[in-house]
Design a protein that fits this description.
11% strand, single chain, Rossmann fold, alpha/beta
């Protein structure tokens, strides 16, 4: 398999020309994305700014059996039971459906949109896993990159980051409350994914905020960034 000399995560996305502002939070599991996104929405709403909260992937796609099997066991992509390229294209299709039917219409109406996950997971995952030796080649990733460039650029892209140990502790707490399956996560996967996400954030000039501290402290940093958009 032909491999690139180095991983290039940079993307030229479509600029948001609509009246509403577009904010994205992403990061490995256990970084507090959902809680922090909800805090942003609540804060903006209290200021009288119409705001929509969008979670990706959609519930329908997240429950799609082949996608669930991949999430449960990443090594399945090296078997005949899965196709990483097809899953990535489907993931992007799900994203673009949400973008065109929910995100863009809201922005056109002047609403602010806060996304919990957006593009990064599908794009970074495919590029990083090609480098790791999974069933993707350079031409596959070129196609994925071409499609990804059609996505809307956030006015504020934020990568939340912390140690895999902290993530696992938070995921474990959710598991105890019945919210999540702890078996879906391991230290090595979280560690490698976190590094790949940071490369993407640096290449695309997203803000990187640690949630290793309590989420309230992290939110104070986020709120200052959000205020710059007002």
């Amino acid at each position: 398999m032909k491999m690139p000399k180095q991983t290039n995560f940079s993307l030229s996305l479509v600029k948001n020309e609509f009246s509403g502002k577009f904010i994205v939070l992403t990061g490995i599991c256990g970084t507090g994305k959902t809680k922090l996104a909800e805090m942003i929405v609540n804060d903006l709403t209290q200021q009288g700014i119409p705001t929509e909260y969008i979670k990706n992937p959609s519930k329908n796609f997240a429950s799609y059996p082949p996608f669930r099997r991949y999430l449960d066991d990443i090594d399945i992509v090296n078997t005949k039971e899965s196709d990483l390229f097809a899953l990535t294209i489907m993931s992007l299709g799900d994203l673009f459906f949400t973008l065109r039917t929910k995100i863009i219409p809201s922005l056109q109406q002047g609403k602010w949109v806060v996304c919990d996950r957006y593009l990064v997971e599908a794009y970074v995952g495919s590029v990083d896993e090609m480098v790791a030796g999974y069933k993707l080649n350079v031409s596959d990733v070129k196609m994925i990159r071409l499609l990804s460039r059609k996505a809307l650029k956030p006015d504020l892209g934020i990568l939340l980051t912390n140690s895999p140990t902290t993530s696992i502790n938070r995921i474990t707490a959710r598991h105890r409350s019945g919210e999540e399956n702890i078996e879906d996560f391991d230290f090595e996967t979280l560690f490698n994914t976190n590094i790949a996400y940071q490369k993407f954030a640096q290449a695309n000039k997203w803000k990187i905020i640690s949630t290793e501290c309590d989420l309230h402290t992290a939110y104070l940093r986020i709120s200052r960034l959000v205020k710059r958009l007002l």
